[in-house]
Amino acid sequence: MKRPKLPKSTIECPDCNKASGFPLGDAKGFSRRRFLQVGATGIVASYFLDVINPRVLYGKTVAPNVALHNTATNAIFIFLAGAPSNIDTWDLKEGAWTPADFSPATFNGGNLRFPQGLMPKTAEHLDKLSFVRSGLAWAAVHQLGQTWAQIARNPTGATGAIAPHIGSVVSLEEQVARKTGDVLPGFIALNSIGIPSSGYFPATYAPFQVTPASTGLPTITHPDGTTRFSDRWNFLHQLDSNRTTGALGKVSLDMNDFYDQSKALMDAPNINALFSFTTDEHTKYGSSTFGDSLIVARNLVAAKRGTRFVQATLNGWDHHSGIYDKPGNNVNSLYTQCAQFDPAFGALLSDLQTMPGSVSGKTLLDETLVVVVAEFGRTVGVLNNQAGRDHNLRMSTVWAGGGIRGGQVIGKTDTTGNDVVDYGWSQNRDIRPEDVTCTVYSALGRGRASAAGAKDQSRRRDAFATNGIRGEDAKPFIDTASRLRGVLRTLERHRRASVDPSLPPLKPARARDYVALVNNCR
Question: Cα-flanking dihedrals φ and ψ of residue 86, to 5°?
């Protein structure tokens, strides 16, 4: 019997020329025998992931003995929520659409074209930056893609809702190395409301959320003085002893952890100075809340008081319309976004480069990995009918410091910027959010400090950007169990659509069910 042709998904992969699918009887796919072998591992269908690529399913279930590079002490994770246009920024593709005042110029010995007119301060540091252009998101849906990029797994999977933020993993791994003076939380998130938290980890490793202000933290001192506060603190512990014993479960212990962390911050001297900044600094970093976030991020990594992972978020990059509109009242365009990002990013790199590190002869930039990430990219070529760009899976990331060799371009896209012609690393495949995360883990040397951290990190420790984003010795693995959730559900949806065309088509709201089909389509 002729196998029915699987329907083409137009939700996440509108430009694909072949049907998405899971050809069980096809030599190119996943045999029935092999499927039963995997199914016999005891993993139930409810734990399966929406990934249909057989190469992914054949992945190892045990992490290889990967050498962590340990080239950075800290990480500053800059998240551009909304997704900027790659072909107008990190992977410039010039055409009739390119505004003249972008002033594209050639840098790094002819290896890089960059819109210096749009981001002049960033252009001053291109010798420190590496651009990774062969990235591909799993989902072109904002909330899904943003969460995926920050937890390094499918948010709709069995553990997606309780998965920890990658900063929480770093915080947990760093716990055993904390010293007496390390009073700051290991993970601090600036201007980053609504991001994933510590998940199934204790709340100790949750992001400490701060909206920067020139005066620092608003409640770091008690209005009635330290003596009165100490009396009330002691009385609280007498009344509420069950909160510290664990008798009331994880929620009460988490609350106790929050209390203890807050008390440590209040008792430590000069902490508020790390969250404060001057008018001159505010101006230097672009006079924006995002700029203020990078000032505080700089202070935190320089202080060496326990914070190892800092996230700073800049929202507003979702330019479906008016992407090239000039700044004005209520205008949100590439110009207005870059006017916030560029001076802040340039100032951060300049300051980190001139500040001494903890090791003689090294700068703070040498010891701090700086990563610029978004949830996905934007469509290429001419603008849409609203003079904007829509969602697209192809994306780029930017790297600096912490062992990264600057002045590089990793991966090469075609003349449109949509398809990859050279992946730029030994595995010869798209670079996914999980790979980005593992590069961060590898640079920070995270993975051996504790068994609890290893539980989360053993999924994929290989890094495409190790030793300055070199992947020659990379041997990635994929945890079979974590890549199988949802397969049976997706197969059933395909079967219904193929056998009974009268069934209503899946709506865009179900796009998450087709997230991973993109990898098989490409």
Answer: -65, -45
pLDDT in tens, 309-320: 999 999 999 999
Beta bridge partners of 431: 135
Q: Which residue has the higher pLDDT, 184 or 180?
A: 184
pLDDT at 363: 97
- pLDDT at residue 12 is higher than 60: no
CA atoms 519, 459, 436, 424: torsion sign: negative
H/E element holding 298?
helix 289-303
How far, in Å, CA of 321 to CA of 484, rounded? 37
Which candidate, 117, 115, 154, places its Cα nearest to that of 131? Answer: 115
Instruction: List, as one string, the DSSP characters of 224-260.
Output: T-HHHHHHHHHHHHHHTTHHHHSTT-HHHHHHHHHHH
Per the structure, the complete domain to which residue 355 belongs is given by 74-215+287-469
Residue partners of 27: CB distance under 8 A and separation at least 6: none
Q: Are residues 423 and 485 in the same domain?
A: no
Residue 9 belongs to a domain: yes
Backbone Cα Rg of the chain: 24
Q: Residue 179 has which token pair? A: 């010293």
Cα distance between residue 368 and residue 353, in whole Å? 10
Task: Tell me the average pLDDT across 355-383.
Answer: 96
Strands 208-210 and 187-190: parallel
Q: Are 11 and 131 contained in the same domain?
A: no
User: What sign has the CA pseudo-torsion 503, 504, 510, 511?
Assistant: positive
- Residues 329 and 464 occupy one common structural domain: yes
CB 74 within 8 A of CB 348: no
Question: What pLDDT is recorded for position 269?
Answer: 86
Q: Residue 205: inside a domain, yes or no?
A: yes
Residue 363's beta-bridge partner residues?
Answer: 356
- Residue whose token pair is 């505004």: 99
Examine the domain organization and report whether 92 and 229 are in the same domain: no
The sign of the torsion formed by the CA atoms of 492, 494, 497, 500 equals negative
Residue 244 and residue 344 in one domain: no
The neighbour count for residue 470, using CB atoms within 10 Å, is 18
What CATH number is given to the structural domain containing 119?
A: 3.40.720.10
Q: What is the pLDDT of residues 441-492, one digit of tens each?
A: 999 986 533 333 333 333 333 333 333 333 332 222 223 223 333 443 444 4
